[in-house]
C-alpha cells in the first residue's frame, strides 16, 4: 500500500503568534517554523504502517511519499518527514499561502500522479485552523473520508478509523483508497535519530511548481484585516469555598 | 438570498447550537430553512420548526445521514444547494467533517468557525489557536460556513414553520461500525453556562473524579479538563477544552488547577 502524507510548514507550536501592527497578518519574520504538529502525527502513523509497529502488520505501507506546498524552505519540513522514515518527497513550490480549496486541488493533481491507496494528513494546520483540506481532497477525488482519527487499522482493503467526535468516539470503515485526517491522540511522533537524519539527506525531493499542475488556485477569500483578540481580564483568587460561592452568586451563575 | 442551516441534534432534542447558528443565518438573510438529518427524527424536525425566524424545515431520514457520514450528508445537501446562497452549520465535529466536503463539491471556499457576521459576505474567524482574528470577505456566490456557536446568542422559540421531507443521501464506500458515547447527566461542555475545569495537579483519575464530579454536580456545571490532564489519562478525551478540544464560553469558569493556556 502506498501512502501519501501532505505536510505543511507552519509557525512552531511553542511560539506565540503576534499580529502585525499594520493588521495585514501574523508576523512570521525570524520566527521558528516547524512541521504542523498534526501532520507530524500523520507521518508517524505512516511510518508505523510501514514498520509494523503497534497493531499494524509489517509492510502494511510499502512506500511513503511526503508532499508539501509552500516556499523553498518547506524542503526542511519534508526532510524532517524523510528523517522520520518517509521514502521520498515532493515540494510544490508556491510563494503565496494557498487557501484550503486551492491546496486540495493541487493535492488532487498530485494524487492523480502518485496514485496512493491512502492519504494521511493532519486534521488542521495550527496557523489557519481551517480543518478543511482533507475533507475537500476526499470530495474532489470522490473518495471516502475518515476525519479526526484517534485510531487507525488497515483491514481487508479498508481503513477502520475510530474518530474523536463530540461526546465520545465513532468508528467507521472506509474503502481504500481513502483520505484519513488524524487527531492528537493517534500516536506520539518520534524524534528522528542522527543516522536517520543523515540518511534523509540522500533521499529524493522532487521540485515542482503549482503551475505544473494546471489547476485554479486563485484566492476566493480576501483578508481585510487581522487583529488581536480582546484581552482577557485576569482571574481572581478566592480564599475559601464560601467566598467562591458568594462570587458566583454575584456573577449570577448560581 | 436564502440560507440553509444544517441542524445539530442528538436524535431526540435539537441542540441549542442549532438555535445559535440560526441567529448567524438570520444576520445574512430573513429566509432561513433548517435541514434535519437523522432517523425517526420527525420530533426533531417539529422542534426545529418552532425556532423563531425559521421559514421551512427539511427532513432527510436515513441510516447513513443519522450517523453523520460526510459522504451521505454531501449527497443529501448537493441537490438542495441550488436553492440557497449560503449553507451554515455549527462548527462541531459533525459540521467540521461534512461542511468542507460540501464546499469542495460546490467549488467554494469554506469559511470555518466564524465568530461574527460583519455583512452578507464578510466574516470574522479566529486563527492561530485564537491568538488572532481574521476578517475575510468571500468572493464566492455560494458560501459554506461553520459557525462557532458560543459566539452567537440562541434564536428564541416561537416559530411555526412547515416540515417537508427530502431524500437522504447514501455513503456507498463508508460504513458506520460503532460508537461509544460518554453518557452524562451534566450539561454539555460546549454549551454549559458553568464549567469546572481540572488540571494535572489533581494527580490521578480517581482524584480528578473525586474532586471534580461532586463540585460539578453541586454547581450544575459541566466538567472540563486541560490537555495535560487528558494526556495523563485523568479525564476522558472529550473533556478537553482548547484548540484541540472544545471551545467553551461559560458565564463562569472555576478552574481547580488548570494551567492557563
TrEMBL record, chain A:
One MF annotation (Gene Ontology) recorded for this entry: electron transfer activity
GO aspect biological process, one term: carboxylic acid catabolic process
Keywords: Electron transport, Transport
Domain of life, per lineage: Bacteria
InterPro entries in the record: ET-Flavoprotein_bsu_CS (IPR000049), ETF_a/b_N (IPR014730), ETF_b (IPR012255), ETF_beta_N (IPR033948), Rossmann-like_a/b/a_fold (IPR014729)
SUPFAM superfamilies assigned to the protein according to its UniProt record, in alphabetical order: Adenine nucleotide alpha hydrolases-like (SSF52402)
Family annotation (CDD domains): ETF_beta (cd01714)
Cofactor requirement: AMP
Function text: The electron transfer flavoprotein serves as a specific electron acceptor for other dehydrogenases. It transfers the electrons to the main respiratory chain via ETF-ubiquinone oxidoreductase (ETF dehydrogenase).
Subunit text: Heterodimer of an alpha and a beta subunit.
Similarity comment: family membership: Belongs to the ETF beta-subunit/FixA family.
Entry protein name: Electron transfer flavoprotein subunit beta
Taxonomic lineage of the native organism: Bacteria, Pseudomonadati, Pseudomonadota, Alphaproteobacteria, Caulobacterales
Amino acid at each position: 500500500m502506498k501512502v501519501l502524507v501532505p505536510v505543511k510548514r507552519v509557525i512552531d507550536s511553542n511560539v506565540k503568534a503576534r499580529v502585525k501592527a499594520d493588521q495585514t497578518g501574523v508576523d512570521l519574520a525570524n520566527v521558528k517554523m516547524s512541521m504542523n504538529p498534526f501532520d507530524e502525527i500523520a507521518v508517524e502513523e505512516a511510518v508505523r504502517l510501514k514498520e509494523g509497529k503497534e497493531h499494524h502488520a509489517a509492510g502494511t505501507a510499502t512506500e511513503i511519499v511526503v508532499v508539501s506546498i509552500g516556499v523553498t524552505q518547506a524542503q526542511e519540513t519534508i526532510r524532517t518527514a524523510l528523517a522520520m522514515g518517509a521514502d521520498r518527497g515532493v515540494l510544490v513550490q508556491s510563494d503565496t499561502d494557498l487557501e484550503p480549496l486551492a491546496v486540495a486541488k493541487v493535492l488532487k493533481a498530485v494524487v492523480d500522479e502518485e496514485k496512493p491507496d491512502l492519504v494521511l494528513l493532519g486534521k488542521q494546520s495550527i496557523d489557519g485552523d481551517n480543518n478543511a483540506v482533507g475533507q475537500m481532497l476526499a470530495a474532489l477525488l470522490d473518495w471516502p473520508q475518515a476525519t479526526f482519527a484517534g485510531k487507525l487499522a488497515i483491514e481487508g482493503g479498508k481503513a477502520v478509523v475510530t474518530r474523536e467526535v463530540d461526546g465520545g468516539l465513532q468508528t467507521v470503515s472506509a474503502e481504500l483508497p481513502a483520505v484519513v485526517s488524524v487527531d492528537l491522540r493517534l500516536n506520539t511522533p518520534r524524534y528522528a535519530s542522527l543516522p536517520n537524519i543523515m540518511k534523509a539527506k540522500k533521499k529524493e525531493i522532487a521540485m515542482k511548481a503549482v503551475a505544473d499542475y494546471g489547476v485554479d488556485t486563485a484566492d476566493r477569500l480576501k483578508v481585510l484585516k487581522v487583529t488581536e483578540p480582546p484581552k482577557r481580564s485576569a482571574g481572581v483568587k478566592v480564599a475559601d469555598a464560601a467566598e467562591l460561592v458568594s462570587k458566583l452568586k454575584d456573577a449570577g451563575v448560581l | 438570498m436564502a440560507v440553509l442551516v444544517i441542524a445539530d441534534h442528538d436524535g431526540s432534542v435539537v441542540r441549542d447550537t442549532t438555535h445559535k447558528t440560526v441567529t448567524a443565518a438570520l444576520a445574512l438573510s430573513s429566509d432561513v430553512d433548517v435541514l434535519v438529518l437523522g432517523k425517526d427524527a420527525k420530533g426533531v424536525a417539529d422542534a426545529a420548526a418552532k425556532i423563531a425566524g425559521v421559514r421551512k424545515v427539511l427532513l432527510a431520514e436515513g441510516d447513513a445521514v443519522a450517523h453523520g457520514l460526510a459522504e451521505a450528508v454531501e449527497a443529501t445537501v448537493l441537490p438542495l444547494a441550488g436553492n440557497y446562497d449560503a449553507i451554515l452549520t455549527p462548527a462541531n465535529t459533525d459540521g467540521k467533517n461534512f461542511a468542507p466536503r460540501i464546499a469542495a463539491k460546490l467549488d467554494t471556499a469554506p469559511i470555518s468557525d466564524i465568530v461574527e457576521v460583519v455583512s452578507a459576505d464578510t466574516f470574522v474567524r479566529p486563527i492561530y489557536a485564537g491568538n488572532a482574528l481574521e476578517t475575510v470577505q468571500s468572493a464566492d456566490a455560494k458560501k459554506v460556513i461553520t459557525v462557532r456557536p458560543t459566539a452567537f446568542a440562541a434564536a428564541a422559540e416561537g416559530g411555526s414553520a412547515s416540515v417537508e421531507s427530502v431524500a437522504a443521501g447514501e455513503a456507498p464506500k463508508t460504513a458506520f461500525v460503532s460508537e461509544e458515547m460518554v453518557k452524562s447527566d451534566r450539561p454539555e461542555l460546549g454549551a454549559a453556562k458553568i464549567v469546572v475545569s481540572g488540571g494535572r495537579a489533581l494527580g490521578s483519575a480517581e482524584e480528578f473524579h473525586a474532586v471534580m464530579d461532586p463540585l460539578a454536580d453541586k454547581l450544575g456545571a459541566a466538567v472540563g479538563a486541560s490537555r495535560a490532564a487528558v494526556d495523563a489519562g485523568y479525564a476522558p478525551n472529550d473533556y478537553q477544552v482548547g484548540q484541540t478540544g472544545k471551545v467553551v464560553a461559560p458565564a463562569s469558569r472555576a478552574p481547580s488547577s488548570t494551567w492557563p493556556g
